[in-house]
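Handout, page 2. Input:
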Amino acid sequence: MSSLITSTTNVFGFGSYTTMLQKVDSASSSSLPDPPPKPLLIASPSETGQFPLLIFLHGYLLYNSFYSQLLQHVASHGFIVIAPQLYTVAGPDTTGEIKSTATITDWLSKGVLQALLPSDVQPNLSKLGLAGHSRGGKVAFALALQKAVTTLKFSALIGVDPVDGMDKGKQTPPPVLTYVPHSFNLDMAVMVIGSGLGEVKKNPLFPPCAPKGVNHEDFFKECRKPACHFVAKDYGHLDMLDDDTKGIRGRSSYCLCKNGKAREPMRSFVGGVVVAFLKAYLNGDNTDLIAIKDGHETAPVDLKTVNFLFDT
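Output:
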């Protein structure tokens, strides 16, 4: 249930907090008095403190457990990360996932999360971020664009290799991209993370996992200030998942997308920039984010793109 992790204060390594990882059943199978609308995987520090929250949405047909190492990386730097299992089977329409994420956010507003955490680990609901990978990135952007309404306010949005469908003109409903530069009317800071190999086919039988026309580049083009964009050059769409992803879906995650040589560097990179971004826009400390931007904090991967849109 818990993982004991200690390390350096470098954002690309694990932080100084010991982390706890727990699964929480949804309303259909839980004995809790006010259970969550969907099953949750929660990564949190186990030491005393009040911590910001991040809701993290999984990719298409993936399990939230496949992100355990990434979630614990972020939690070890002083954040509570909540990863719902939005579905096990889904069609192309993401409307249900958008509504489910809004419902989970409203559930958090009731203050019920505290009962699932150690008594001295307190969630700070006024510091709330939203992130998602792949299709989950699309869902995160859609919710931030108020395709569903929430009672809590998000202050930071992260798309981890977000994908809005199969191709331009073949977006999954509801479409998020408008193809109008800087058209996203978002009252929050945004970070988009891309994979250099995401737009490359693994083999002729399968399309690329993050096709041009609906991927990270297109999402960032529609962002307004403040926003940043990182692209890891030699890594693929699923390279931030755990090293050992079990079952048929876990094994297929190594087969369907063009991958880098190993997952650990990309996972450490994604965890690090997520931490730096959250520290900047939830905690008001942009030291690490600026250090990464200026090359003073060395990333564990080669970067193809580093782009920042700052308020002047």
